[in-house]
Amino acid sequence: MGVLDGKRIAIVATDGVEEVELTAPRQAVVDAGATAEIVSPAGGAIQSMNSDIAPSATYPVDRVAAEVSADDFDAVILPGGTVNADRLRTDADVLNLVKGAFAANKPVGVICHGPWTLVEADLVKGRTLTSFPSLRTDIRNAGGTVVDEQVVVDRGLVSSRDPGDLDAFCEAIVKEFAGA
């Protein structure tokens, strides 16, 4: 039996998602017993990228953001990828899903550019997190405290800086999600 048996995890992503930031956390939660579903603004498949510029594999979308709510999941993962994060933060259904997760005190994991969605949803005020360096001013301007650490856990919010932090990030999300 895994520590996440019976848990449903939403991995919110769209075209431009950094592939390893989608696949490594997904594998970590699945290996721990969870069901992980890719939730995206549109159906079909999403195009992942390597280092933001090299197209990689495509991944089928399991659920469309407009058709789900935070009640459908036990936790949420927001992988990075500059284009992915920029697109997600402008989608009202994605913002509603993430706001719903925070309102219900469900754990959320964000890595790299993933915090952009939290900034847009006005969810970083009073929180401590980390991110890719180019987002740090945005987080501070939105009322968050930024630290440069491999992984930060703040009241159910797990954050990491970049793909180099994935081992620590995956370990932290599994632990945080198990406690939810």
Please list the strands of the largest sheet in the order they lie side by side: 6-3-1-7-8-12-11
Principal-axis shape: globular
Instruction: Please outline the major beta sheet.
Output: 7 strands, mixed
Number of helices: 6
CATH class: Alpha Beta
Tell me which oligomeric state these chains represent: single chain
Describe this structure in words.
The protein is an alpha/beta fold and 180 residues long. It has one domain: Rossmann fold (3-Layer(aba) Sandwich), CATH 3.40.50.880. The chain contains six helices and twelve strands. Strands 6-3-1-7-8-12-11 form a seven-stranded mixed sheet, sandwiched between helices. Strand 9 (128-129), helix 5 and strand 10 (145-146) form a beta-alpha-beta unit. 51% of the residues are buried. The model has no long low-confidence stretch (mean pLDDT 97).
Features:
32% helix, peptidase activity, globular, 180 residues, hydrolase, single chain, Rossmann fold, three-stranded mixed sheet, 6 helices, protease, alpha/beta, seven-stranded mixed sheet, 12 strands
